[in-house]
Amino acid sequence: MSRAALCQDRPLSPGGDFLQRLLKHPGGVAGGVVTLGFLSIALLAPWVSPDDPLAQDLSRRLQGPSRRHLLGTDDFGRDLLSRVIYGARISLSVGFISIGIAVGTGLLLGLTAGVYTTGRWGRWIDQAIMRTSDILLAFPAVLLAIAIVSAFGPGLRNAMLAIAIIYVPRFIRIVRASVLVEKEQTYIEAGRALGVSPRRLLWCHLLPNVISPVIVQATLGLAEAIIEAAALSFLGLGATPPTPEWGAMLAEGRSYLRLAPWVTFFPGLAIFLTVVSFNLLGDGLRDTLDPRLRR
Amino acid sequence: MLQYVIRRTLMLLYVLLGVSLTIFLLMRLIPGDPALVMLGERATAEGIADARRSLGLEQPLAVQYLIYVKHILTGNLGRSLHTHTRVAEELWARFPATIELSLAAICLAGGVGVLAGIMSATRHYSLLDTGFMMLSLAGVSMPIFWLGLVLIWTFALLLGWFPPSGRLDVRIVLDPLTGFYILDSLLTRHWQAFWNALWHLTLPAVTLATVPLAIIARMTRSSLLEVLHQEYILTARSKGLHEWRVVTRHAIRNALIPILTIGGLQFGMLLGGAILTETIFSWPGLGRLLYNAVLSRDYPLVQGGTLLIAATFAVINLAVDLLYMLVNPKIRYE
């Protein structure tokens, strides 16, 4: 049975005024607008991009920004603006897919660890999940990502997998901690007393109440995941040329830093602005969803 | 207190075992014969047979892991596939460069970050506060590999103020007593080398310090704001103490506890960031060694480097926890 069918009598959103509160947060609004802008550019890339991002024209190599090429051209005479626009597609996809995998796995394992804390098997499951998370958290994130990619082999798919793996423990911890707090609340006790099934209690009552910190962490995690993915590509372990990925473009431009700094500058600026917008949005969501965390 | 120290030290041992198990399993996931992976494609049949025996590849996986741990404990991390030198020696030779860079970065991040946080908190909602917090947002969001390249272009290539790469000019000869060039130059009173090493250290340290600086500034601000609203601060103010004295003598002491934790964790995180910074600035440390090893598929070196960085990270985290206990009486007297 799907969650919607299981929880028919209950509104999915715990508060209707969420959007209104978010709209009153200037940073959140600014972040949301820029994020939407980048998402639109990524989705509409074939229509808004002035050129083919892979089309080479050696007669126009390393040209500075001009009316014909607004951000200049790279070593193969490819239009940088088109590559940055298409790069948004790849970088945002990598961020969304890896964080999506991390959130899904983290939710499942975090809920399991948080719910099953009693009984011999329950304690064993909880301990196994949490101690494995501790070990993964004992690595600096970039180092673990590099170790995973070096074992599985370079490439965008393995980079996404590596990023997902390094973020799973964070979501497990957040979900488990929230479950441990929520399951002691009166509404859960009342649900039990009324004879609500454990499955319904978990999916319809517990999950909506633990999801807020997950959403916040996912938004902030997206920003970090975009940087991690770009870093892996920059090191030659993620996307490979001629893929228009921001980190890979930075690495290509590095060799021409003196001659053509724009080849390095614009892809980096795109990463920076995307990450700033996700961070602003994440801060806004955090303040809106959980005013206790406001700083 | 002693119980806490013992518990944390046991936890460190557990984490180190877990880290070694993760690296061991990751290396076993590489397609192909592990002996061939560890010796490279030019290995002879005899060499492969020796390696299979030494790694215990005929034994069950658990026994193989125990043999691997035994090798680590005896300092036997294998030999580099390319230079054929012992991995432990290679790592040890590069270790001081990474620690020197990380220490410089954390000092910069801690000093400037705490100062910026204090200024922001004491001038809450002012233009200065807004400016600092916008800068800290920019810092937190900064891809350091891009920042490093922008700094190289601006301060090394365009203005020529700093060198774009390396640790020391090739013309300068310095006795490597400890491997920490700043310390070595001070010990040998080689002032030219001291200034030159500092000059080379500036851009990489600034690059590496950016993210932790922004995080420490944010943390200091929020932690100090929380303390400044407490009643004992009101009492201090009502005694007529100067605001600066209230902040430096009374507020910052309590605000420092979370800052110290975050700062310590950031120091550990720097080891990860050092891989990128060292690659950009051709800094001859562990990070760059690991990067080159990954690209050339030098698995013994990758395995050893990952283990050393992760173990250092775990030890730093333990040190931070113990330091936290020393400054936080709540934990000390528990």
Concise structural overview:
The complex is a heterodimer of chains A (295) and B (334). Chain A is 70% helix and 0% strand. With 295 residues, chain A is mainly alpha-helical.
Architecture overview:
- The complex is a heterodimer of chains A (295) and B (334).
- With 295 residues, chain A is mostly helical.
- Chain A has helices at 3-6, 18-23, 26-43, 45-48, 80-115, 120-137, 141-152, 156-182, 186-193, 198-234, 246-254, 262-289.
- Chain A is elongated.
- In chain B, 77% of the residues lie in helices and 0% in strands.
- With 334 residues, chain B is an all-alpha fold.
- Chain B contains 14 helices and no strands.
- Chains A and B meet through helix 6, helix 7, helix 10, helix 11 and helix 12 of A and helix 1, helix 6, helix 7, helix 9 and helix 11 of B.
Count of discrete domains of chain B: 2
Biggest pleated sheet of chain A: none
Average pLDDT across residues of chain B? 87
Distance between the termini of chain A: 41 Å
* Number of H/I helices of chain B: 14
Shape of chain B: globular
Second-tier CATH architecture of the largest domain in chain B? Orthogonal Bundle
Major sheet details of chain B? none
Give the count of helical stretches of chain A: 12
Helix content of chain A: over 70%
Strand coverage percent of chain A: under 5%
